[in-house]
Amino acid sequence: MKKTGFVLSVLLFAGFGAMAQQEDPAEMKPQMTEIWDPEVRLVTPGKTPQDAPSDAIILFDGIDLESEWTSADGSKPGWKVEDGCITVVKGAGTIKTKRVFEDFQLHIEWRSPEEVTGKSQGRGNSGVFLQERYEVQVLDSYDNRTYRNGQAGSIYKQHAPLVNVTKEPGKWQTYDIIYTAPRFNDDGSYFTPPVITVLHNGVLVQNHSKVRGPTVFIGIPEYHVKPHGPGSIVLQDHGNPVSFKNIWIREL
Ligand code: MG
Fold first, then answer.
1. Ligand 1 geometric centre to CA of 236 (Å)
2. Residue 215: pLDDT over 70
3. Are 221 and 198 in contact (CB under 8 A)?
4. Which of 5, 8, 75, 99 is spaced 20 to 30 A from 47 at the CA atom?
5. What per-residue confidence (pLDDT) applies to 4?
6. How far is the CA of 220 from the centre of ligand 1 (A)?
7. Which of the four CATH numbers 3.10.310.10, 2.60.120.560, 3.40.50.720, 3.90.1170.20 does domain 57-251 have?
8. Which residues, at least 6 apart from 14, have a Cβ–Cβ distance to it below 8 Å?
9. Cα(13) to centroid of ligand 1, in Å?
10. 199-202 contacts: CB < 8 A, separation 24 or more?
11. Per-residue pLDDT reduced to its tens digit, 142-176
12. Contact present, 95 and 234 (Cβ < 8 Å)
């Protein structure tokens, strides 16, 4: 929804409220508050909540990586495709979707290496960047302390997850991410900030979390640069062989 659309919606809603207030409740009929058209669009759900519904874009089907993904420089992605999943190859760099997105619902499954090496941020680290800027952290946070706003399910260095529901290393895990892109003022600041909700293995870990600015490793994230448009989904190469599969997205 654009800024003007948002303002219009607020005015319409306020107008409806004022109109309803003028009606004598005793005079109102149930039908007066029933909205029939347009009919809600039909979507066929997947067999399970993990399976893509009929209106999803399949970003990785277990076989074909190159149709939807490139390396950051636009070349072919250098990650390993094997056994129905993709795995980070250290040094191959991040990969990103060719398509760009605004508001969406994203499903992605990930697995940290069964063989545990390293600790804290050095163990099973990757990440899902929304619009190329805002990182939902992927980390092996099973019996692995690190700073709370940098563990699995965090919005990296901005919001800790509400709980830690990380499975054992080597087990597949799910993220379901609902993302509302920022809208901008003319001076480049956020009119509304990015908002992120995350379910980790079906459990709510980010509840409508407002983002301060693009993810940074050092310093306080603040948005004070120029507005950005739609962006790719980016998966991070942090040097650990983290795997991903069953990636689909619904544009909202
Ligand atoms: Mg990361």
1. 6
2. yes
3. no
4. 99
5. 47
6. 17
7. 2.60.120.560
8. none
9. 41
10. 199/174, 199/175, 200/152, 200/153, 200/161, 200/165, 200/166, 200/173, 200/174, 200/175, 201/165, 201/167, 201/173, 201/174, 202/49, 202/174, 202/176
11. 999 999 999 999 999 999 999 999 999 999 999 99
12. yes
The token duo for 106 is: 């994203």
DSSP per residue, the chain: --HHHHHHHHHHHHHHHHHHHHS-GGG--GGGG----SPPPP-PPPSSTTSPPTTPEEEE-SS--TTTEEETTSS---SEEETTEEE--TTS--EEESS-BSSEEEEEEEE--SS--S-GGGSS-EEEEETTTEEEEE---TT----GGGSTT-BTTTB--SS--PPPTTS-EEEEEEEE--EE-TTSSEEE--EEEEEETTEEEEEEEEP-SS--SSS-----S-----B--EE---SS--EEEEEEEEE-
Structure tokens at 183: 């809208």
Confidence (pTM): 0.89
Place of tokens 């739609």: 230
90 C-alpha vs ligand 1 centroid, how far in Å?
A: 13
Residue 183 CA to ligand 1 centre (angstroms): 25
